[in-house]
Amino acid sequence: MKFFIDTANLEQIKEANDLGILDGVTTNPSLMAKEGISGKEAILKHYKDICDIVDGDISAEVLSTTYEEMIAEGDILAQIHSNIVVKIPMIKDGIKALKYFSGKGIKTNCTLIFSAGQALLAAKAGATYVSPFLGRLDDISTDSLNLIQEIRTIFDNYGYETEILAASVRHSMHIINCAKIGADVVTCPIQPILSLLKHPLTDSGLEQFVKDSQKMQ
Ligand code: E4P
User: Any idea which residues are catalytic in this one (predicted)?
Assistant: First the structure.
């Protein structure tokens, strides 16, 4: 399973990359705005900076919502680096844009997926990734893991190569459950990844080993 970090913060991206297990980065307009990135030049530079840190797929989201504007924006984003994945919202014009980029061999990530039908449409349009949002479904008392399972079944039934990128991942159990179901990628802030490290028996066991190692010196 691939691990992507879901942030536009360069320090957090570096920290995750230094762990040596990072496969890519996802961003969205909210995460970019949080870092104070504004204006065309600053946006393109920021994505270039991320590409310079991480050698993996970097999702850069279009800001527009019409077909013509999305393909114009996406074409510019795709020129930044060969690792750029153009992130497109799940709307009617978005499906057309996914088809356009797929025809040009440009990677895409269809975002804001909340149903299996949306994922199926994006896969048919040739999306490289679909991003079902787990945390936001949980927030409205809907079983987000059931959605991941449904999409897995549908993609496997028809051999779609579109990868399931589980997004809006909030905690380590989301990661474990996605791995059990067979999501291809999870994207989340660094904390849920670091939480995977934790076990009290590891801490107490290491404490004892460190103590005993002193008897050996
Ligand atoms: C990733 O592609 C999404 O933009 C992101 O995971 C959304 O996460 P949130 O629901 O925590 O904002």
Answer: 87 (schiff-base intermediate with substrate)
Domain count for the chain? 1
pTM of the predicted protein model? 0.96
CA of 131 from ligand 1 middle (Å) equals 9
pLDDT of residue 217: 85
User: In angstroms, rounded to a whole number, what is the distance separating the alpha carbons of residues 69 and 167?
Assistant: 25
Sequence-distant (6+) residues with CB within 8 A of 72 are 64
Per the CB < 8 A criterion, the answer to whether 131 and 92 are in contact is no
Model pLDDT for residues 178-209, shown as the tens digit of each residue: 999 999 999 999 999 999 999 999 999 999 99
The average pLDDT across 143-153 equals: 98
Ligand 1 shell residues, CB under 6 Å: 6, 26, 28, 111, 131, 133, 135-136, 167-168, 187
Residues taking part in catalysis: 87
3-state secondary structure 92-152: HHHHHHHHHHHHCCCCEEEEEECCHHHHHHHHHCCCCEEEEEHHHHHHCCCCHHHHHHHHH
One-letter amino acid at 125 equals A
3-state secondary structure of 63: coil
Nearest-CA residue for atom 12 of ligand 1: 168
In which domain, by residue range, is 191 found?
Answer: 2-215
Q: Measured from the CA of 135, which atom of ligand 1 is nearest?
A: 10
